[in-house]
Amino acid sequence: MFKIGFIGTGVMGTAMIKNLITANYEVSVFNRTKSHAEEAINYGAHWMDSPAKVSAVSDIIITMVGFPKDVEEVYLGEDGIIAQLKPNQIILDMSTSSPSLSKQISDAAHEMGGLALDAPVTGGDIGARKGTLTIMVGGDKEAYDKTKDILHKLGSSVVYFGKSGNGQHVKLINQIMIAGTMTGLTESYLYANAAGIDPESVFKTIGQGAAQNWSMDNYIPRILNNDYTPGFFAKHFLKDLRLALDESDKLGLDLRATEQAKRLYEIMVDVKNLGNLGTQGLFKIY
Fold first, then answer.
1. From CA 157, how far away is CA 176, in angstroms rounded?
2. Catalytic residue among 171, 235, 239, 262
3. What burial letters (b/e) apply to 51-63, b meaning 16+ CB within 10 Å?
4. Is pTM beyond 0.85 here?
């Protein structure tokens, strides 16, 4: 059985690590702040002091970190994964990052004789805990074939999309769709309140029809309970929207609705300093 290294023990990463340990994989972990890895360590993960040390003891290294600059540092930094990569070792970045960075990391891995995948996910903290994430994979087919069983311990839907960077493209497509559902559910909730109609009854009703969507099913109950803890941080969603619009510019697209969603999340994150709330906190800016 493969030995797995896992870097990034946030909300998503910790849940994924626990699922891997439950499936009897040996998992070594690193996080910039060790205290944030305590839950994973207490569950049975082995602590390592750097990404390079994780790489040294692992057959497969999985990363789940916040921003592209974090991805770049973890892989290409002075004490990063690539510096210690061994022939046929597999790196698997499950962060949401840029397709071009995924390609850069893949090329660096190939120079060391390794294999690389970009495999971002969707499904939030609930999907991470339940092992029902949707995983979008790009990169080396040989690496995908070797890691399919591992990925299916983390997600109920795992789809291979071809060359390096394509997993990231599909994740950005996903975030474009979610941008619309998040603004829609926020303004629908505000409308129900203004009209004096019980929001819980409203969303129970429209959730049975054409308006039904994952964001509404998972975030409206939290809003009704005044729960803005992050299943997915608003600051990370804003990062994803910026990535999506950057890539759209390269493709010659003008995504006006996504641009407007980005502006709203910029108000939430950059102006109101609410980036550590979940994405469902958007209506606090209205």
1. 19
2. 171
3. bbbbbbebbbbbb
4. yes
Token digits for 137?
């994979």
Distance CA 29, CA 224 (A): 36
What is the Cα 285 distance to its own chain's centre?
Answer: 24
Give, for 229, the enclosing helix (H) or strand (E). none
Residue count of the chain: 286
CA dihedral 243, 246, 251, 253 (to 10 degrees): 100
Task: Tell me whether residue 205 is exposed, middle or buried, using C-beta atoms within 10 angstroms of its C-beta: 0 to 12, 13 to 18, 19 or more.
Answer: exposed
What are the C-alpha distances in Å from 58 to residues 1, 109, 129?
Answer: 11, 15, 23
Low-confidence ranges of the chain (pLDDT < 70): none
User: 103 catalytic, yes or no?
Assistant: no
- 51-92 pLDDT per residue, tens: 999 999 999 999 999 899 999 999 999 889 998 899 999 999
Per the prediction, the chain carries an average pLDDT of 96
Tokens representing 234 are: 């608003």
| pLDDT of res. 1 | 86
The reported pLDDT for the residue numbered 231 is 86
